[in-house]
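Homework help thread (please don't just give me the answer)

Our assignment gives two proteins as sequence + structure token strings and asks us to describe the second one. The first is just a warm-up. Here they are:
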Amino acid sequence: MRTTANNMLLFLKGLAMGAADVVPGISGGTVAFITGIYIELVATIKSFDITALKLLKSDGLRAAWHHINGNFLVVLLAGILTSVFSLAQIMHYLLLEHGVPLWSFFSGLIIGSVILLLRQNPPAKISEKLLFFVGVLIAYGISIAPSVVLEGSVMTMFFAGAIALCAMILPGISGSFILVLLGLYPVFISAIANLEIDLLLAFSVGGIIGLMLFSRFLSWLLASFQSAVIALMCGFLVGSLSIIWPWKSTLYQEVSNAGESLTKVTENILPNQFLEITGHDPQTLLCLLVFCFGFAIVLSAEFLGKIRRDA
């Protein structure tokens, strides 16, 4: 049974997951992975099954609630939803006004997390090392994939929800970035801001159905090949660093022979190139400091966890 302090900590993890999920390039699954609740989260999503309905019918609400890990889910969802509808505004402000240091902070968190996870679960087999590099390539490939533009209809949002929410529980693959690739991120943000219930409902239903199916496959993988899956997910995290590299330049490329439409393309550049191309201060020293701060947060969490285990 969780204590009040544990529930508060879980709520804070939910806040971090929600804030991450609305920012293209950061995955809520990444936050769950590096904060140690990932396996429990996947198992909880998977627990919504026929057994839960049978328990509800035969043994009552309490037994079904225990089966689906209801307390965990309610506290975590409360944090996620609170973040999406409140802290998300702060994240968007930071992204627009202080984007370069923010991405540097995220980079420090992710690199520190990868080092920690690989130290705790070192890939011993050649197959696990290979999966790590495959994960890097997959996440990097997604990061450089060209975006498309889809119509923001109810049916489109249903399938987008199924794809994006599955991506959201994969470390290193951002559900919001998937929406960017589909050209539906502005539609999604607008639907939240304007409370467009039909689009939000279609997105949610698609996401729930996708999660129910995908979580079962993912849970089986974790139970059967945990070391290999962790190696693959660490690869996802490393590959995602391309998405959140702080210094970028924006290009526009024609996508039709007549030049009637343009698509925005970003490429990673060095700090000195950032100053030359954009005319903005690369804030190199500040970025280095917040990078180290993010890195130190992960190492501090490991140190505090070790002290608690040894106490």
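The one we have to describe:
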Amino acid sequence: MARLCIAILTLILAGALVPARAQDAPNGKLSLERLGEIQPGTYLAGDDVRFTLVKDRDNYLLHFDNNPEVFVLYAGHASLGGRVLKYDSGETVLQVAGWGGMTLYTDAAPTGLPATRTGDGAVPMPPSVSLSDIQNAAEDEAQHLAYMRGLRLTVTADWATVSIDGATRALAFDTMENTVRGLDRFSYNAVGRELLAHRIDTVMVETAGKPTLRLKAKTLTVTFNPARGFEGRASSRAISRALGSIFSKR
């Protein structure tokens, strides 16, 4: 079979690059830099969706309460001085209006929920794990897919590389968890389950210069860059979307 390689995080987050003109205010002109300002902190969206948003270099990290995954968000400009924050899969998750109001978009609420800042906060870091911890996790994740989706897959990693240091193991564990979440997400319907059951029998996690997915024979290889932290691996949403792209080309 042809070797397929899909780079996940090389996304061009193109928004409407039309900033609003500064308007006169009683004390002078409103600074353009303050329009659509993204404020890190903890938030409540709707009645019960709680999340934390923090700055991470040029990007942002998002963590929902009661969900272990940490998402990397990429910021872009929107009309009227607003900003948008997107997943690495390209979907908009947060929109900040020029006047500062924030809206959260979820699978359950695609039309958006108003979000209110409630305080300061920090997202969790990848846990410290031993080699045996991550090997046991690989077996547990395979059992999860078998029990929940009826998929008989072997989940493994490049153990020699993963054993080098704790930082690499931590991100390898995070990558493995996101990959299984992505497989779980993709196999939510019968079509996805059938594709995975017939096309994949092994999931391999390896290091590389950037996060990618490639399918050769029946081995799905997922790569991550341990030097880039959260940005060095794909989210579960990006994994699921990349799977769709892989199977659509076969």
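TA reply:
I won't write it for you, but here's a hint about the kind of observation we're looking for: Helices lie at 131-149, 159-162, 166-186, 190-199, 236-248.
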